[in-house]
Amino acid sequence: MKYKKYSIIIAVLVCPIVYVWSCNSFGRRNIDNGISFKTKLSSYQLFKGKMAELKPNDGVEMFELASTLFTDYAEKQRLIKLPEGKQMVLNGEGLPVFPEGTIIAKTFYYSKVAKKGREIIETRLLVLHQSNWNVATFRWNVLQNEAELITGGADVPIDFTGLDGERRKISYHIPTKQECASCHRQNDLIIPIGPKARNLNFSVERRDGNINQLSYLMKRGAIKKIKVDSLNHLPDYHDTSLPVQQRARAYMDINCAHCHQAGGFAGNTTLNLDYRTDLEHTGIKFNKSNIIIRTNQMGEFHMPKLGTTVIDKDGVALIKKYISGLK
Q: Which percentage of the chain shows pLDDT scores above 90?
């Protein structure tokens, strides 16, 4: 009985250390870009008119995600620019097949920054070249009329009021190139995270009214036409009318599964948080206390390891509610 007690104590102390080591030991090889990025964001002609207005240029499509990545309460605009005459081809409910030369852009901003109004912080690009994705980050200048390529990351102090009405002061972290690559890696390749068909398959507001986003992009010629009725969709984890299980699994899919799945940065741990993985094979039950602890504190043991400098209180509350209800 005495030895069993000591074994439990040792396991409690050692398991988190082993877990962190396993998260950091996988896929240590750096993934280098196969192209040289231009130094100014304007060179990619993503916007028309004044850049700060973020109006998509002709031939550039805006897209939204049903469930979104939490990044320190930042708001985001997502754009995709396809080569003229080219289309995406849906590949089941996962990532579409993108044509060579595709550019995916995600711009991070805050609408209500103290004494400034809207402030755009950064734009991240994914560019497909010779079947490989390349990643870069551009930091917007003070005048908000240009963004410059940076590779070493940066910390930007922000005093803002969030969409929830709460005022916060944070040090927003713009990731380094390698930090971007660690989240976007699948084995030794860079891949997009958000624009899977299941995360695009929901209704959005466009000029013509409410329309399924995949159908809209097909209408615009960005996606090759197919019937979307049979495709699955990822729930919006903000939608409180949905079952907690669906919301929590959707949250973990977009915020955690890019690392915690086969081929991801933490693919050798006991967690697989892809939404399609059935509960018994996710490892959630086995790791439930560890998941709560690591999402509810900042520091070395915090998850997700990158992209956040503050705790997503609503996200943690959702995960706690879900896990406490598991039998």
A: 59
